Amino acid sequence: MPDETIQNEIEILSKKELDRTIKRLASQILEKVPNISSLLLVGIPTRGVYLSKLLARCLEKSSGKPVENGCLDPTFHRDDLERVGTRIAQVTDLPSTVDDREVVLVDDVIYTGRTIKAALEALHLWGRARRVTLLILVDRGHREVPIQPDFCGRVVPTSKDETIDLRLNEVDGQEGIFLCKKK
């Protein structure tokens, strides 16, 4: 009997296409946030934090102004820990208050929406933002709560036995987005 944990991979976005998508998303943020100094990018661990940093650099390059970004770990606000399991939580690190800020939550992939729901609950403990929007690199469907991204790099319909993996040089030693299927 074959091992079901072995996976096939299909490259969805190459490094070049990923870079272009990040630049497009940064441009969309600039269009929606009139005052860049009020912007706060908040990455959700793990890949959302790195994606947030990439977006901040891209936004700084385009606007000529620094963009604050930080990390918000929603692990302890999840309502589905028994299903997804626990992991070592990262320290929430926000550079300033979220009060009256244009907050963009950043994550790599949206699936059920429960991570984002938990992140919104966690963010509320840090203050009251003027507006919170959601940036997702890949929307793979299968939502269990009514949460949709405001900024989305790609929509990739998947089956429940498939996953989407964002790989970044800083973490993985390669870049791209991959659809992974069990054999």
Task: Explain what this protein looks like in three dimensions.
The chain is α/β, with parallel strands linked by helices and 183 residues long. It has a single domain, classed as Rossmann fold. It contains five helices and eight strands. The chain has helices at residues 15-32, 47-63, 81-84, 114-124, 169-172; strands at residues 7-13, 39-43, 68-71, 102-110, 131-139, 151-155, 162-167, 176-182. Strand 2 (39-43), helix 2 (47-63) and strand 3 (68-71) form a beta-alpha-beta unit. The termini are close together.
Question: Helices, strands, pairings?
Answer:
Blueprint: E1 7-13, H1 15-32, E2 39-43, H2 47-63, E3 68-71, H3 81-84, E4 102-110, H4 114-124, E5 131-139, E6 151-155, E7 162-167, H5 169-172, E8 176-182
Parallel strand pairs: 2-3, 2-4, 4-5, 5-6
Antiparallel strand pairs: 1-8, 7-8
Helix pairs in contact: 1-2
Kindly give the count of domains. Answer: 1
- State the total count of DSSP E strands: 8
CATH class: Alpha Beta
Total of helices = 5
- Describe the global form: globular
Question: What's this model, at a glance?
Answer:
The protein is of the alpha/beta class.
What brief labels describe this structure?
3-stranded antiparallel beta sheet; 5 helices; 183 residues; 8 strands; single chain; 30% helix; 5-stranded parallel beta sheet; Rossmann fold; alpha/beta
